[in-house]
Amino acid sequence: MVVSGGVENITHLMEEERETKMNEEKKDKIIEDIEKTDSNSNERIRVALRSFQETQFLDIRKFYKSEESGEYFPTRKGLAIPLNLIPQLKEALVKVLEEVEDWSVRYE
């Protein structure tokens, strides 16, 4: 038995599935993992672009390394910054760097 429009329906469903997968891939993008250099080497800071409920934001979060699996997992410690505030954040970080230089603190 042949269903009318069967091929078109399957093609449409495949296109929807591909679009959904592409949108999911756009949700999270790791920008940088910053390894902590102090005595606690089981932590890192992850900077990522994320999406939640159709809202995009910059996520700066502390991660810890599981002793059992060796994988890194997020903690509750972090910031979710709306993308429209990134220019202000950039200006603030430039000022922080200037202050750090004035303090003669060593940073890398």
Give a summary of the structure in a few sentences:
With 108 residues, the chain is α+β, with helices and mostly antiparallel strands.
Descriptive key words:
Transcriptional Co-activator pc4, Chain A; 37% helix; 108 residues; alpha+beta
Can you list the strand order of the major beta sheet? 1-2-3-4
Tell me what portion of residues adopts beta-strand conformation: 35-45%
Counted beta strands: 4
Q: What is the arithmetic mean of pLDDT?
A: 81
Overall morphology: flat
What is the ordering of alpha helices and beta strands?
Answer: HEEEEH
Unreliable residue stretches: none
**Annotation field: number of helices:** 2
CATH C-level name: Mainly Beta
What class do helices, strands and sheet pairing give? Answer: alpha+beta
Q: What is the terminal-to-terminal distance?
A: 69 Å
Q: Summarize the biggest pleated sheet.
A: 4 strands, antiparallel
Q: Mind telling me the C-alpha Rg?
A: 21 Å
3D structure, described in words:
This protein has one domain: Transcriptional Coactivator Pc4, Chain A (Transcriptional Co-activator pc4, Chain A). It is 37% helix and 36% strand. It contains two helices and four strands; from the N terminus they run αββββα. A four-stranded antiparallel sheet has the order 1-2-3-4. Strand 1 (29-35) and strand 2 (43-52) form a beta hairpin. The termini are far apart.
Secondary structure blueprint with pairings:
Layout (H helix, E strand, L loop, with lengths): L5 H22 L1 E7 L7 E10 L2 E11 L6 E11 L3 H18 L5
Antiparallel strand pairs: 1-2, 2-3, 3-4
